[in-house]
Amino acid sequence: YKVLRLILGDQLNLQHSWFLEDSPSTLHVIMEVKSETDYVWHHIQKACAFFAAMENFAETLNSKGFETLYLHLDHENNKQNFSENIQDLIEKFDIEEFQYQLPDEYRLDQEMNALCTKLKISWRCFDSEHFYTSRNELTDFFSGKKEFVMESFYRAMRLKHRILIQNDDKPDGEKWNFDVENRKKLPKNHKPNFPLLFNNDVRKQHGRLLAGKIQTIGNIHPENLQWPINRSQSLELLSYFCKNCLPLFGTFQDAMHTDEWSLYHSRLSFSMNTKLISPKEVVDTALAYWKKDKSIGLNQVEGFIRQILGWREYMRGIYWMKMPEFEKLNYFNHQTKLPEWYWTGNTKMNCLKHSISQSLNFAYAHHIQRLMITGNFALLAGINPDDVDFWYLGIYIDAIQWVEITNTRGMSQYADGGIIGTKPYAATANYIHKMSNYCDDCGYNRQDKTGENSCPFNSLYWDFHDRHRAKLQHNPRLSMVYRIWDKMDAELKASVLQRANYYLENLDTL
Ligand code: FAD
Ligand code: SF4
Description:
This protein is mainly alpha-helical. The protein has three domains: 124 residues, HUPs (Rossmann fold), CATH 3.40.50; 135 residues, Alpha Horseshoe (Serine Threonine Protein Phosphatase 5, Tetratricopeptide repeat), CATH 1.25.40; 170 residues, DNA Cyclobutane Dipyrimidine Photolyase, subunit A, domain 3, CATH 1.10.579. It is 45% helix and 5% strand. The strands form two sheets. The protein has a five-stranded parallel β-sheet, sandwiched between helices. Strands 3-7 form a two-stranded parallel ribbon. α4 links the parallel β5 and β6. It is globular and about 80 Å long. Bound molecules: flavin-adenine dinucleotide (FAD) and iron/sulfur cluster. Flavin-adenine dinucleotide binds next to α9, α11, α13 and α15.
């Protein structure tokens, strides 16, 4: 071979220009390495899904005539990290040029840069050809600006890509956002469609992880992993979503329910984050369904597209604008350890019990569970963002640092001091009750903020705002919060803070 091409585990993009024409003197390599399995405790379903998707991709490439070497975790020559394995292969096959695609993670980008400066042969780096935006497009878009508002970026993306835009450049439906029609609680007796699940046998991959003594979290039935692990399953999930979930996606986007773990969400994040399918394919397919199916409202399709064309591209852009400083940010100087029950779901707080247990069972929770239940609690309780990141980076099927850390440290923990969000996403039981049925059979009382059984979110909410007054009181979006707090009876305030203090000192027992 003359050329060695590295394909990372989240670069399973069959549409990439690498695969448009034959490349007879090229060897492709995909590797399972401990430097990837060990940087965090991954959910066992996530580790298996990655390995299975990677292995599947290698088989597909080989079947199409692209020579691909798949290095198993337990292979005797596996050096367990990319750089050493690549150097080994270059020597073994007398390679003349090394090629790779831009990694999405800062850590791997650094590793590739360091490797290439060491190489004695030539090397080339290619775009991953996955996103709507290039790596630094958002940095350029906001250059000279102090604030990086998602909405302005999203509107520019809509215009640039002519998505839901009329000939006169106005948005379809004359509005950019239909949130007032969306975000409803699930009505009693409303049963969402059953999620489409797959039956992938990942016993071999699971066995290698066990034999390699890789530390993982969560539960699995390795004989039937339910996540899509190849392109055709991902496309099947996409059509299923558009037919069965898109018609009510926006309406119930923020709803939570004890009997449901994914409601009308697409569960396409793993397929997209591994690049089995592209965001453009997802957006175009949703648009095509909306055009032909009158039962899909504009509010549903706009709400869905905003998540992908807006939030997903925005988070990636912010990541590349702000790394590596971003991973150290701790605006509130939060230092508390993550309570033990985040790893087990063993808490009396019903909302957290459900959100965490389903995360352990399915490697999945939807956005509002991540933001307003597990994230909200960690924020109010003052948990160290390093701990919070460690948990989120491992537990979800779609967790990759560029999209995990921006959502966790930024959006949910406000540890970036407001780069991503305009105020902290903090809420009391009022919000949780409004959007879910969790409070109905919880041992805590959602309406109480001082008693022994009072919902911890209530006192912790006020305690959080009181504790961080100096940093938050001048935020115009919080003036109402401080007005209410300041008007509260002094005795009541004291008992709220006392209750919060008790909870903070006994987090592990909640
Ligand atoms: P849907 O609700 O069906 O949305 C469709 C798609 O939109 C998603 O697949 C995703 O690609 C995109 N999307 C939606 N919201 C966001 C967002 N805020 N940022 C970026 N993309 C978004 N997403 C990840 O992919 N990986 C993560 O590690 C991750 N960690 C998160 C941590 C926290 C604390 C929070 C609040 C959110 C996190 N998200 C993460 C964003 C979002 O919650 C998930 O993308 C979504 O829940 C995935 O499920 P879905 O595919 O069913 O999404
Ligand atoms: Fe969660 Fe409080 Fe509601 Fe219980 S009462 S489910 S702890 S919000």
